[in-house]
Amino acid sequence: MIVNRLSEIMDSRGMGVSALARGACVARGTAHKLYHGRSEGIGLDVLDRVCSFLGVQVGDVFVYVTEGSGAQEIKEARNEEHRARNLLLDTLEALLDIEATELKGALDRATDLVTEPIGAGMVDACLYDPATDTLVAIGASGTPMARHQVEIGMDRLPILNGGRTVEVYRTGEPFLTGCAERDLQVLTGFTDGLSVRSVAVVPMETAGVRRGVLQAMSAQSDAFTNDEIEFLQAVARWIGMLVHRAELVDRLTREAVVEARRVGADGIVAALAHDLGSHLSPLGSRIDGIRTRAKLQGRREDVDDVEAASVELGRLRGLLADLLELGRLGAQTAALRRREVELGALVKNAVDAAPAGNGEVRVRVAEEVTVRVDPGRVGRAVAEVLAEALRSSPDLIPVVIEVASLSAYDGRWAEIVVREESPGATATESASGETSQGSGGLGLFVARAVVEAHGGTLTVESAAREGTSFRLRLPMEGE
Fold first, then answer.
1. What gap in Å lies between CA 389 and CA 402, rounded to an integer?
2. Is the pLDDT at 121 greater than 90, yes or no?
3. 404-417: b (≥16 Cβ within 10 Å) or e
4. Rounded Cα–Cα distance for residues 469 and 359 (Å)
5. 250 falls in which pLDDT band (50, 70, 90)?
6. Distance between the two ends of the chain, CA-based, in angstroms?
7. How does strand 198-206 pair with strand 175-177?
8. Which residues, at least 6 apart from 302, have a Cβ–Cβ distance to it below 8 Å?
9. Whole-prediction pTM
10. pLDDT at 144 over 90
11. Pairing between β-strand 198-206 and β-strand 209-218 as defined by DSSP bridges
12. Could you tell me how far CA 207 lies from the centroid of its own chain?
């Protein structure tokens, strides 16, 4: 540490680090009392000031100027400095060579590259998951400590549990300790479960948004220094770029898969809906004719039957309209009339337009969230999801709708969560139009198609005794 500090002082004064100055600290306390003030280009007055600043008595400085262990230690210190610098550059270059084809695989490779240079027991790249309010070790080095971490569940750190890792994520300030067992803020899962003694944690950002942390741990005490913190900070910046590249690849891949699935199916659905629609017009005319004759002849029962048939015909027409809408959205031929809208107001309008008597709905808007969307279609999506939630919810249990914005590893999102908290719901996870109560018709299909046409997602999460949550996410453009 004294050598490093002396090096900083010499460099700041533009004098470089001489063998005498470095040796003066390295060989302090040894047997030879050699005192050469000017032989290495540093005046006695300068050496006196430096030693005074470091708290070292000039008369007690022992150095080997040309031969002996002092000179050897100087050479080894310089070589070690060069090795460390080269190792840092090699590691960062290797990080850039990682192919970002899949996020987890890329982060696993990145953490593996970092583990050995700093002598860590494991290195984790943790990203924040807003759905569970948890820091998740998406990437981890393939070491025994990292594998054991997964076995005991320490690869997932709920924000509510606190701890030093969460603290770094919240504050953006690095953390370093060489005696973790004495720090009450270090989770016992690490100190007791993994026998961690040294911890180094730095924040990790992507595109200016804090997404998680990069942390290194070791079972050895005092395994890391500020040098490792600086190393991890440099690596975290590069991993942030890697995450961004992986996000782009993942999104493009996901879009390509969805598009491939729709190419054939959407064409068939649209053609079928169009052909069926062409038969409904004459069928409607026949029903109108039967109704007229039945009324003229006073056949009341027949009139009632015809009215019921007319209602069903109207529902069939609505179903075919939904199929045509799905076809247009899937083929990307639907013209989205986008404009900026306040999402909370849009949701409240959809709730107000819902049929009365279907159950209580509570809307909670955490903040004003502005998105650029087609308000008519997004309003339809919210209405369809709300209708499905009301069908699933018992009469006396309200449906809750929450509106908020969030930052995730893949950008800024506006989120609408529609939650029915029926205790008897069975566990499923789908956005395909099927819920725990059976088929929901085309409503959820249309809602999902609308949301995806805007670049968002619709997911359904259900669990026993917890009810069902419908989660709509829309990208916040320009964020």
1. 13
2. yes
3. bbbbbbbbebbbbb
4. 16
5. confident
6. 44
7. antiparallel
8. 290, 294
9. 0.46
10. yes
11. antiparallel
12. 13
- At the top level of CATH, which class does the domain 98-246 belong to? alpha beta
With a CB cutoff of 8 Å and minimum separation 6, the contacts of 411 are 207, 209, 247, 475, 476, 479
In contact, 327 and 269? CB cutoff 8 Å = yes
Q: Is residue 305 packed enough to be buried (19+ CB in 10 Å), middle (13-18) or exposed (0-12)?
A: middle
Give the pLDDT confidence of 383-404 residue by residue, as tens digits: 889 988 888 777 667 889 999 9
Q: What integer pLDDT is reported at residue 342 of this predicted model?
A: 93
| Nearest-angstrom CA–CA distance, 167 and 189 | 16
**Using N-to-C axis directions, what is the helix angle for 375-392 and 443-453, rounded to 10°?**
140
Contact yes or no for 368/342 (Cβ under 8 A): yes
* Residue whose C-alpha is closest to residue 176's, from 195, 196, 201: 201
Beta bridge partners of 438: 435
Identity of the residue numbered 93: E
Query: How many CB atoms are located within 10 Å of the residue 120 CB?
Result: 28
DSSP 391-433: HHS-TTS-EEEEEEEEEETTEEEEEEEEEE--TTPPP-B--SS
**457 vs 9, higher pLDDT:** 457
pLDDT at 50: 56
Dist CA 391 CA 345 (whole Å): 23
**Positive/negative CA dihedral, 177, 183, 185, 187:** positive
Specify the range with the lowest mean pLDDT, choosing from 262-276, 344-358, 433-447, 455-469: 433-447
Q: Where are the domains of the chain?
A: 2-86, 98-246, 252-330, 339-475
DSSP string, 343-365: HHHHHHHHHHTSPTTS--EEEEE
| Type of residue numbered 73 | E
Do the beta carbons of residue 157 and residue 126 sit within 8 Å?
A: yes
Q: Which residue has the tokens 């027949």?
A: 302
Given the structure tokens 């709708």, which residue do they identify? 401
Which CATH entry fits the domain spanning 339-475: 3.90.1150.10, 3.90.79.10, 3.30.70.2860, 3.30.565.10?
3.30.565.10
Query: Between the ranges 103-107, 178-182, 328-332, 441-445, where is the mean pLDDT highest?
Result: 178-182
pLDDT confidence tier of residue 433, bands split at 50, 70 and 90? very low
Q: Quick one: tokens of 329?
A: 């959205």
Of the candidate ranges 18-27, 196-205, 321-330, the one whose mean pLDDT is the lowest: 18-27
Measured between alpha carbons, how far is 342 from 302 in angstroms, rounded to an integer? 50
Highest mean pLDDT among 5-9, 201-205, 290-294, 366-370: 201-205
98-246 and 339-475: identical CATH topology? no
